[in-house]
Fold these 4 entries.
Entry 1:
Amino acid sequence: MDILLELIILLLLAKGFGEICEKIGIPSVLGYIITGIVAGPMVLKVAQPQDVQIFAQLGILFLLFITGFEQGNIRELMKDIKAIASVSMLGYFIPYAAAMAIGWFFGLTLNQLILLGLLVAATDSGITIKSIASVGKLGTRAGKIMVGVTVMDGLTGLIIFTLIMTYATLGTIDIAGIMHVLASIVAFLAIFIVMHKLVPFVVKYVEYMNVEQAEFSFAFAFVILLAITAEHFGLHGIIGAFLAGVILSDSPMGTTTFLRRISSISLAIFIPLFFIWGGLLLNFEYINPFSFAIVGGVLIANAVAAYLAGMLNNVGKEGSLLMSISMLPRGDINLVLASIAVTAVGRTGEPILTKEVGELFFSTTMLLVLLGAIITAVLLKIFIRKREEKGG
C-alpha cells in the first residue's frame, strides 16, 4: 500500500477510535494504540511498524517538548516541595520495587529487573492532571501537589532513565565510565543554562520576522538541535526535547498562542502516529501471567503509595483517595522508555535485552497503559458518584 494512503487511513482510524474512547471516558491515546493493534501485523495487516517509525520518532520528541513547555514554570509548582517530593518518591519507588519483586519471582536477571522497574514505575502526567481536573480539584492542595509531582516525575524519571540505561549499556559498574557520563550530564546542563539565558533574546528577533510561521520553524529546529546535542553528550534525545520545551516556555513564546499552534500539528499527526506505532509493535503472543502479575502488582503498589503519601501530607481522606486514583494511569513516557529500552544496544553492539524479553517487556508495558487508563476511568466515575451522593 502507498505510504501516504496508509498514513491517511491510520490517522482517520486513530481519530475515530480516539473519539469513541473519549465518549466513554477513556483517554484518546488508547484509541490511537487500538488503531495500531487493529491495523497492524496481529489483525488486519494493513500497516507495518517501520512504515511510521520516522513519524513516531518525531512524535516522541514533540510529546516531550510539549510536556516541558507546559510544565516549564517549575519554580511556581515547587512551593510545596516537601510534600511533592515525598509523594513523588513513594509513588515512583514503591511500584518500582513491586515490579522488581514480581520479576524476581519469575526468574529475571538483575539487569532485566532494573529495566523492568524503569518502564512501569512512572505515571502519565497528562492523564493524571486531566483526572484531577475532571472532578474540579485542580485548585486544591492535593491537586497542586499532584501537578508538582508530574513535573518532578518528569525530571527525575528522565535522570534515572539516563543513569540506568548507561549502566545497562556499559554492562557493569564502571567507575571511569560513570564519571564520564556524569561529566557529560554536567556539560549538557551547562549548555542548557546558557541556552536558557540566550534563547529568549533570539526568540524576540524571530517574533519580528515577517516570513510565515517563523516561530514554528525555529521551535522545530531548536527541538531537533537540542535532542541531537543531548545524544552527543551520551544522553537520550527526549531529554533535550523536554528541556527545549522548558527553555521556550520561559521565552516570549510562553505568553503567545505558540503552544496551541505547535500542539495542533503535533496532536494531529506526529503524536498519534507514535501511539499507533506502539500498537503496531504489540505482540499478543508475549502477554502471559507475568504481564498480568506486573500490571496488578504495580497498580496496587502505586495506589497504596499515593494514598499513604497523601495521608502523611495531611491532604485528608478524600484528597488522598483522589491522589491514589490519579496516579494509576501510565501512558506516553512509559511507551517512550519501553520503545527505547527494547531497541537499545550495549557497547558490544548486541541488544541489551533479547528479542523475547524485549517483546515481553514492551507488551507488558502496553497492557499496563491500557488497563491503567480503563481502571482509572472506572474509579473516577465511582469517586464522582460517591461525592455527589454526599452532596460534595
Entry 2:
Amino acid sequence: MSSNAPLETTRSQDRSAGSPVIVDAKPAKPVQRTWAQVMERKSSVPEGVWLRCDTCKTMVYRGNLEANLHVCPDCGHHNRISAQQRIAQLADAGSFVEMFGNLAPADPLKFKDLKSYPDRLLAEQVRTGNKDAVKAGTMFIKGRQAMVVCLDLTFMMGSMGSVVGETITRAIELATKDELPLIIISCSGGARMQESGLSLMQMAKTSAALARFDDAGGLFISVLTDPTTGGVTASFAMLGHVILAEPNALIGFAGPRVIQQTIRQELPEGFQRSEFLRKAGMVDRVVPRSQLRTELARLIDFAGR
C-alpha cells in the first residue's frame, strides 16, 4: 500500500489488466430523506382505505368491510351505520319510496347552550344532507312490502325530537290504514335535550299510535341496534310484537356507568347488551346483520302479512 494513498481508499493491482483499482474502505452513507419526501409517500395512500376495528384492533380494508355489511370479518363486530346504509342493506333494489321527507325541525323554545339550536341543526344538515335523524317509507324485503322507519345515528346521535316523533307516528298511521307490517330500526342516544318537554311528548305520541296499530291487528317488528337508549327505549323501541337485536348492541334507558354509580354495585358481565337482554326475556332474538333481511321476511310470512 502506498504511504501517500488517502485514508478512505486502498489501491490494489489488477493482475490481468495491470492497472490499479481503487476500492472504497468505508460503506456508503445512506441517503437521508426529507420530511417532504416522507409526506409525499404517505399521501400516495388515500385516507380511509384501511380501518382499524374498534373491538379486535385489526386493520380491515374498507372494501371488504363494506362488502361484509360493515361487520368486522375477523371478530364479527357490528359497526354503526347510517339510516341510508341500513335501508340499502334491507330493501330490494330500487323498491324504497321515501315519505315524510318534507318535515323539518323548528326551535319554539329558543334553546341555546354553547351554540343556538338552529345553528346546530344547520351544521348537521349540511354535514349529513338530511333534515333530521330519521328516514321512513315503504320498501320490499325479499318481495314482502313493509313500512320501514330507520333512525339515523349520524344526525345528532339519532336523538328523538319532534320531527322524529311525528315521522314515526305518521308511518304507524299509514301502516294501519294500508295494513302493512311495520318495522322500526332504532339507534339513538334518546330524547333530544334541545327540545326539552316537546321531545318527551314524542314518547307518549308514538306509543299511543302503536296501541291503535295493535288494536287494528297490525304486525310491529322492532329492531334494536347499537346504541338504543333513553326515551327511545322507554317508548316505541320496546313495544314490538317481535323484538330483534343486533349482536352486542347497547340497549337500555340510562347507561351502565350511570346505573353503577347510582346503585353502587358491580353490574353483571355484558349488562345491557343484546345477549344479556335475550336471556332476561327482553329481546326475542339476536340476529346478525347478514341474516336480518331473511329473518324479517320470515316473520312477515309467519304473521301472514
Entry 3:
Amino acid sequence: MGALEFSEKYEMRRPLLLIFYSLMVVWSIAVWSETGFSFQSIGIWKSVATLLAGTIGIVLFILSILELVSYLVFLPVAGGSISALSQVHGESLLIPLTSSTIFLSLALNILTGSFYGWGLWTLLFFTLSAIIFLTVNSQDSIGKSFESNDPTPKTSLMSQLLGLIIGAEIVTVSAGARPISPWRIDKLPDDTWVVDVRTKAEFQWNRLEGADNFPWGVGLYDAALSHSKSQPVLVTCFSGHRSPAVAVMLRKMGFEQVYNLHWGLIYYMILNRGKKQSGPFRLTRSSRDTSGRGKDYKAISVAYVSMQVIMLALAPIEKWSTGIHVSGLQRWIGGTIGISGFVAAYMAYRVLGRNFRVFAAPRRSGVLATSGIYSKVRHPMYTAVIFAFLGYVIYWGSKWSFLFWLMMTALYVIKAYKEESVLEQRYPGYNDYRKRTWKFIPYIY
C-alpha cells in the first residue's frame, strides 16, 4: 500500500468532515425545533451518563482548542511548509474537536430526549467512525515506508484510536511521523538529531543533552538542509503541543525517521527526577536542589483541578436537569464575583511578570513580589481562582457544585500553607512580609 493509496484515502476524509459538520448543523436545528433545548427530568443513571459524556466532551474540546491555538501560532514561522501543514496537520486537528462534539451532543440528547436528535446523532457517530477508520488505516500504509528501521515498539490499534481522539498522535495519523513514549527514547540511535522547539528561556532551563533549539521551528527549515534525510530525528517541546507541527514539516521535507516525544519533556523530566542519567538523551538538569524547590504538591494540584473540571460541567447540568430557578439578582451577584476573580488574577499576573509559574516553588532567578496587589495579599492568584469559581457556582445556582467549591478552597488553603514554608526558605525577608500582609483577603484572612 503506497503513498498514492494513502493520498486517496486521505482525500476521502474531507467530504466526510464536511458531511459531519453539516449533520451537526441539522442536528442543532432539529433538536431546537423539537424541544427548544428545554431539558426533561432525568433519573440518577441518566444524570451520571450526562455528567460523564459532558465532562469528556468539555475536556476534549479544551484539548482541541489548545492544539489549534498552538498550530495557528506556529503557522507564521512555517515558511514554505505552510501548504503541507494546512492540508495535513491542520485538517487532522479537527478530529479531537469533532470527537468532543459527539460527546457534548450525546449529553444534550439525554437531557432533551429529542427523537430526531437521537437519529441524527447515530449518523454523526457512524460518520466520525468512518473518518477515524480512514485515518488510522492511512497511517498504517504510510508508516511502512520506514517501518524496518523503526526501533520503537509498534502502536496498538487501541492506542492509535485513543491517541487520535484526544489529539495525542496527530503526527502519526497525518504525516507518518511516530510518537515515542518518554520511557522509550533511549531506544533511539545515539546519532539521533534532537530538535527542541521551545522558547530560548525554556531551553536554557532544562533540555536533552546535545539538543538544538529552534523556537517554534524558526530556522529549522534551513538547518535541516544540512542533515542527511536518513538520520533519525526526535522533536521535543514542553507538553507535546508544539512539536507535532514541526515533526510534520520534517517528514514532508523527506526525513525518513521522525519521532515526536509523546507528552513532551515535562513527563520525561518527571520520570527521571533525581536520577543520575548517562548517554545522549540525558537531561542537563536531571536533579533538583533540596532547598524546597520542586515541591509541587502534585496530588493537591490534581485534586483541585479535578474539582474545577467537575464544577464547570456539573453546574449547568444540575440546573438543566433539575430546573433550578435562578433570579436575575443572583446571576448579577455571581457574575460580579466571578469577574472580580479575573480582575484579581490580571492584577497579580501584571506584578509577577516572568516570575509567574504554576508550581509551589519559586524560580531560581525569581524575586519576591511585594508591590501592587501583593502589598496586601500574599496569594492573590489563589484568591482569584476561588472567587472566579464561587461566582460561577452562584451564577448557576448549583448546590452540588458548591460542595466541590468548598473542597477546592480547602485545598488552596492547604497548598498556600505548604508553599509559605518553601518561600520562607527561599527569601530571608519573607517572615516580615508575611506579618504585614493577609493570606487571601485583606483585613479578613
Entry 4:
Amino acid sequence: MRILSFIIWPLVLYLIGLFSTESPNTTTESPHGKDFKISCSTCHSSKGWSLDKEIYAFDHSKTKMPLLGSHKDLNCKLCHSSLVFSEAKAKTECVSCHTDIHNQSVGKYCDKCHTPDSWIVSNVTGIHQQSRFPLLGVHTMTECQQCHKSETLHRYDVLGIECFDCHRDKYLATSSPNHNTANFSTDCSQCHYIYSYEWASSGFNHDFFPLTLGHANVACSKCHPNNNFSNISTECVSCHLTDYNSTTHPVHSGGCFSTNCTVCHTTNPGWTPTSFDHQNYFPISSGNHSGFACNACHTNPANCTFSCIDCHEHSQSETNNQHNGVGGYSYLSTACYNCHPNGSGGGKHFRK
C-alpha cells in the first residue's frame, strides 16, 4: 500500500495542474503595445478597462503634442486609432490629422493663422503684416479673394506682390492721362498714395514737385500738355514765362529780376505776398524809407538800378560841400548806398 500511494499522489497532482484554468505562467498582452511603460492606474480604475476620467492623470503636456484648446476634449481614439500610442509619435503636425483645404497655398503650418481654440482667423491683417506684402491703406479692407483668385474660396494662390500684378487692367485703361502711351512707371506707389481711397489726383503722390496752394487744383494738362509726362522742367519760368514778361509793377523782364520765381514768390495764388526780403539789401519795412512804392526809388523800371539823389533834395554843390574830405565820395546813388547802407545819415553810419 505504501508503494501504491507513492505512485497515485504524483499522478493526482499532475492531473490537477494539467486541467487548472489559472496557470501561473499565463499573462494578458496590453492593447497599448509591449513597450508601453505607464501604469494602468494612470487611466483606468477597478470600474473596468474604459478610460476613467475621474482618475485620469496622464500629463499630455510632457509629450510633443500638448492638448490645448479644443484638443483637450477629444476622444483619444481620434488620434490614436490603434491605441498603440507609440505609433502616433510622428503625428504632431496639423496636416497629420487635418485635411489641408488650402492645398498648401499657404504652407503646411496651420498655427501660422489658426489656434487650437478655433479655425476662425481673427487677425488676418496682423498675420499678413509678416508676409512679403503687408496690408496697408485701402488694402486692409480688401476682400481676400480680390487678390487671391482661385478655383475655390480656400486657396490663396499669390498673384504677385507688385502693384501692377493686381492693377494691370486699371493701368492700361487709364486715359487721362494715358499711362501706357506716356510710359508711366508700373510701380503705382511712385505716383499714387496707398492710403487714398481713389486713384484720382486727390490721392496722387506728387511729392517730387509738391502741388501746394496755387498749384493744388491745377489740371494735369496745364503743366503736361499732350500727355507729355516726361522731360517737363520743374523751373517756375517754364510754365510762368508769360506771367514774368507781362508783369509791369515792377517790370520783371529786361534782366533786373531773376527768372527763378522762388527768390521772391511762394506758391500763394496771385503771386502775393512776396517772400522777397528787402531788408537784406536796404531797410524799407521801418524807418524813414518805409511805405515807399517800388518805383519811388527804382525809377527805371527796365532795370534794377535805384536812385537816391532824385528823392533827396540836395543840390550837387551842397552835397559836395557836406562831404569834403570824405574819401571815395562821388555824386552818385551807388556811392550814397556804399556809405549809407541803412539809409541813415551821418558819418557813424558809414560803411567801414
